[in-house]
Design brief:
about 240 residues; 8 helices; two-stranded antiparallel sheet; binds zinc ion
């Protein structure tokens, strides 16, 4: 018999085992991880020092100065923010979102709070990082669009998931892939279809994870080439 919590749209049946520690998830709002694994997941709250451009973690203590990691100098976006580190509950949530179009209530609230802290409300349109049509078909949805919808509902900003497209099907980024290899796979992969909707706009690009920044940078580059004024990036997690 199906549990009364069973939702046919969700394979994440509740109650279930925490995808991080295997313990029991007591609260549905926590999604794929238990509350103690959430407590062991570092989220950014403004008390730390991050690179003022790419959001790389620089130190635990807050610096009053504007600081840059300098590794992101060549990247084309203006500012990038993530809700927290790609670890524990955030890793479980990002991996789960690749399997099913579901974002837990806990992650939504962390993500929206990060948006509010980051002074991103001057963005004019949210653009999810696109998947190639082949991968979108395989997966059935684009996880970045699910994140964009969550943000749109909370902020009232509109989502444009059609103006930026990924024309080349690139292999899934493997953990062992180095920075250079990743960059080669995304270079020239993006294209703007409806230039008039991008021209003069401040764009908020959203994605599940920020790794080397190359995907966001190539998206930003093509958006700016087509007239975008500024490009900000907001992701659920950052890997390095
Ligand atoms: Zn756990
Ligand atoms: Zn940086």
């Amino acid at each position: 018999m199906l549990s009364k919590f069973y939702d046919p749209l969700l394979t994440l049946v509740f109650p279930h085992a925490c995808r991080v520690c295997g313990g029991s998830v007591e609260n549905f709002a926590d999604g794929p991880a238990c509350s103690s694994c959430w407590e062991n997941t570092r989220v950014f709250d403004g008390s730390e020092t991050l690179c003022s451009k790419c959001g790389a973690f620089l130190s635990e203590a807050r610096s009053e100065r504007v600081v840059y990691c300098r590794r992101c100098d060549d990247q084309s976006f203006d500012r990038a923010f993530a809700a927290g580190f790609y670890e524990n509950a955030l890793t479980a949530s990002v991996l789960n979102l690749k399997r099913e179009p579901f974002i837990s209530k806990r992650l939504k609230s962390i993500f929206i709070k990060r948006f509010e802290q980051s002074d991103l409300n001057r963005s004019e349109v949210i653009i999810p990082v696109p998947l190639s049509s082949k991968r979108r078909l395989e997966r059935g949805f684009n996880q970045a669009e699910i994140i964009a919808d969550v943000l749109s509902k909370a902020t009232g900003l509109s989502v444009d998931s059609r103006s930026l497209v990924r024309k080349i099907h690139t292999p899934v980024h493997r953990a062992g892939m180095d920075r250079k290899a990743r960059e080669l796979t995304v270079k020239n992969a993006f294209e703007v279809k409806r230039k008039n909707l991008i021209n003069g706009k401040t764009v908020l690009l959203v994605d599940d994870i920020f790794t080397s920044g190359s995907t966001a940078s190539y998206c930003a580059k093509v958006l700016k080439k087509n007239g975008a004024n500024e490009v900000f990036v907001l992701t659920l997690a950052r890997a390095d």
